[in-house]
Task: inverse folding
């Protein structure tokens, strides 16, 4: 079973590698994929981050002489670069964002996901996922999906606050970007049999259904709420759906933490 999962993980990594390379080439030749001026676009910086993360995984797996220090250095660059991007957009977005420029910055949501993935990858290169009640690796992967979940609400209900930055609608998580990030997360989970999640899921059908329900609730609950009360984005701000979403995230992580403590 584990070998089959590792094979699937490698296939997904190759798909992300090829896809991000295509996006990079498209940007270089001035024809970015699914480019639009009134909505989120997958930036060249996001493509670079994706390419580096999965590229390092594949290089480490297939090139036995691949330098360990290169992994740490490049992941530090990816993580540090995305932290810098977040700080730039938080501190002075009007200075660093030019809506007329052909260059699109990575959104705060996307950069947050890449920072979490980078931390996870660095930890995994330094040590195997430990058997501990503090399931840090599981938490990092789960939190890396949170920005995409928030953007999903934006795409479904066309909330500009969740979709992109008002100063430049191109700076956000596009649907293509969400597919890439979800694929990266899935390959990350399949690639690590030492995650507590796998141990919990092996406990039987009840455990599998419980986790599936908790995980799905994170995304379904805020959507159901918005369908019931109606979506009104005139103020262009966050609403109760955000807190409902985070409530689901905390419920899922809290449940896994309690289960890990009981093991």
Result:
């Amino acid at each position: 079973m584990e070998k089959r999962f590792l094979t699937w993980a490698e296939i997904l990594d190759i798909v992300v590698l090829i896809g991000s390379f295509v996006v990079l080439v498209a940007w270089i030749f001035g024809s970015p994929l699914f480019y639009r001026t009134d909505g989120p676009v997958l930036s060249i910086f996001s493509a670079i981050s994706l390419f580096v993360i999965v590229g390092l995984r594949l290089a480490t797996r297939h090139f036995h002489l691949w330098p360990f220090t290169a992994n740490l250095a490049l992941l530090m660059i990816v993580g540090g670069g995305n932290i810098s991007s977040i700080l730039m957009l938080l501190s002075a977005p009007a200075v660093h964002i030019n809506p007329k420029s052909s260059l699109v910055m990575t959104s705060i949501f996307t950069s947050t996901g890449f920072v979490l993935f980078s931390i996870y990858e660095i930890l995994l290169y330094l040590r195997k996922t430990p058997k501990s009640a503090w399931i840090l690796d599981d938490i990092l992967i789960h939190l890396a999906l949170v920005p995409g979940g928030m953007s999903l609400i934006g795409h479904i209900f066309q909330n500009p606050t969740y979709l992109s930055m008002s100063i430049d609608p191109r700076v956000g998580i596009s649907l293509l970007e969400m597919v890439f990030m979800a694929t990266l997360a899935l390959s990350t989970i399949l690639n690590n049999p030492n995650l507590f999640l796998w141990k919990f899921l092996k406990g039987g059908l009840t455990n599998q259904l419980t986790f599936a329900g908790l995980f799905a609730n994170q995304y379904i609950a805020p959507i159901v709420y918005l369908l019931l009360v109606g979506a009104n984005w005139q103020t262009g701000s966050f609403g109760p759906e955000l807190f409902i979403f985070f409530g689901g995230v905390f419920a899922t992580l809290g449940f896994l933490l309690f289960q890990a403590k009981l093991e």
Observations:
- Residues 2-192 form one domain.
- The first strand starts at residue 164 and ends at 165.
